[in-house]
Amino acid sequence: QVQLEESGGGVVQPGRSLRLSCAAAGFTFTSYGMHWVRQAPGKGPEWVAVISSDGGDKYYGDSVKGRFTISRDNTKNTLYLQMNSLRDEDTAIYYCAKDSRRISGYPQGWGQGTLVTVSS
Amino acid sequence: DIQMTQSPSSLSASVGDRVTITCRASQVISNYLAWFQQKPGKAPKSLIYAASTLQSGVPSKFSGSGSGTDFALTISSLQPEDFATYYCQQYYSYPFTFGPGTKVDIK
Q1: Largest Cα–Cα distance of chain B, in whole Å?
Q2: pLDDT single digits (tens) A18-45
């Protein structure tokens, strides 16, 4: 079955950078798009970004566009989220999720998340 | 961006009740609508996609309906494990957006 394990979260100061990773197993990683979705404390999920199965197409949410970059390494079955210029409002649990298809499907299977806290 | 709304924001129900949650999109999204269940401290879990198709492994007491802008999630007979928060999400156009959620708790 789908196994997704996020890592790289932690406490970071505003304005600094952080890179999240998501190790995938249990499915053919190269056939599916991948999402990042975040959830601030006590709030609902917020979609962050998606990348196509081959990495050629990427789309972002308005609040992270220009600051965050999604990427993937299909040789390592790993998804990444490079987060720059972090703000207090980026504090959240970050989930990676497998798309239901190559791209533009829904987040079908989710990891358990990694917590990012932006604070001085 | 497409805005998603849900009603009610919360509801109290008893075991065995039939429960319906509605979700509305600010513009037509055809049937590009998914429903998720989330329990405290856990990741969201996919229940339904394409507005009415049950995700593999999800019990048939869950059902979805609707198309265009108005959608519904129905739980036919509420069980203790169904008390959770439910979210809808549109995947018709970027950026994808979630509804604010409906919390279902025990009466």
Answers
A1: 38
A2: 999 999 999 999 999 999 999 999 999 9
What is the C-alpha separation between A87 and A32, in angstroms, rounded? 30
Amino acid making up residue B101 = G
Helix, coil or strand: residue A60: strand
The pLDDT of residue A104 is above 90: no
Q: Are B100 and B5 in contact (CB under 8 A)?
A: yes
Q: Tell me phi and psi for residue A18, to 5 degrees.
A: -155, 145
- Chain segment B50-105, per-residue pLDDT in tens: 999 999 999 999 999 999 999 999 999 999 999 999 999 999 999 999 999 999 99
Instruction: Supply B103's token pair.
Output: 């919390």
CA distances from B86 to A23, A47, A120, B35, B55 (A): 27, 16, 34, 7, 15
Contact A50 B46 (CB under 8 A): no
Number of helices and strands (H, E) in chain B? 0, 11
A47/B contact by beta carbon, under 8 A? yes
> Do B30 and B67 touch, CB atoms closer than 8 A?
yes
Does the beta-carbon distance from A105 to B89 stay under 8 Å? Answer: no
Cβ separation of B95 and A44 shorter than 8 Å? no
Question: Can you tell me the distance from the alpha carbon of B43 to that of B54, in angstroms, rounded to the nearest whole number?
Answer: 18
User: What mean pLDDT is predicted for residues B34-61?
Assistant: 97
Only one residue has tokens 């975040």, namely A38
